User: Fold this.
Amino acid sequence: MLRYTAVSVFVFFSISSFAQIIAFPGAEGFGKYAVGGRGGAVYHVTNLNDSGPGSFRDGVGRPYRTIVFDIGGVIRIRNKIDVSSYLTIAGQTAPGKGITVYGDGISFSGDSNIIVRYIRFRGSSEMGRGSCTVSADHASDIIFDHVSIEWGRWDNLHIKKSQNITLQYCLVGEGINPQMFGALLESPVRLTIKNCLWINNQSRNPKAKAGIEFVNNVIYNWGSNGFVGGHSSADHFQDITANYFIAGPNSTGSFIGMFTATDHVFQKNNMVDLNRNGKLDGRPVTDGDFMEIGASILTTPSNSSPLVAVVSPAEAFRIVLKEAGGSLKRDAIDKRLINEVKSFGKRGKIIRTEAEAGGQDMTCYLPSKKARDTDGDGMPDRYEKKHGLDPDNAEDANINTEGSYTNLENFLNGLIRKNK
Assistant:
């Protein structure tokens, strides 16, 4: 169901003209001011079809929308989905164990002002050989929050020539044949990666051919290399702070690798645990670890965004295990990956196809009792009545107080607080 009126268009541009507010409470990093679909239409995903009315593909095909899900389960796609700008993808609205987009990947390339929360994107062995699960090239002002990105054939994630991007509380794992890589980040400006889990990738956890702040992440069971430098003739600046590198069954000792003098590294308070003894008891990472593989060391950060909270690597480990990926309603695949990390080196496997990991469960998750939303504005009638809104008036979804969130955004943000 789609409600889109002249009034909501007016409200959208009015809100955009206000002083900046962050995308949602808890948004951090360079992408935190992404506007998303604030003030625009509401699109209800009502089926798991690859395309057509009520499908996810149809919903993200036009800008100025908030996408909500009336159904949960797996959307099996046969070709890549290209999304539009000014979107909020509210995966937290999906019933059951949430929503997964599985198949041929999704592209945010060329887009701007997108908020993506609590959803799983998975590629497959049927994708083209050089395909990535998620790409965001030539893009700007995007925040990925609590998103699982897995099973990419070349890389799980590719970002090139983009700016003002945040990945926070994401899970990037299990790249598949032929490369089994985590992510290639090429020449982005102002890129934050924070509180993410990188797991069971052969290399590129990530490859930072870029300016990047990499804060409070956990890198587990890399293969040949963990975090990879740009190792090219161009200068790259990587701020690497308070992360935990933990070797697994497939890991070499190269928790960092492929750096050259053109990689300018500021590193502080990182830890590495290489002993696979079933305990978290790593040692501090030193500047010497980076210098030994050719990196240039900086004494001050180059890319750090203001007001990004930093905790110890041990605390980051606890937070990442609790929050990373579509953690509001984790499915069996993500639960398995989290449990592998909890083995502290004993379990984990770099796979070549998703079939080796048990494949994708195609279960459809239906709500036990669908909440009535008479006006289709994304807020259930009972919520509107409780908060003094009109269940028969779709326009009240976009009402806001200057400089604050809309009524719809308050509802969506409240779903996360309610279900934690």
The chain has a mean pLDDT of 93. Helices lie at 6-16, 56-59, 287-291, 313-323, 332-341, 381-386, 407-419.
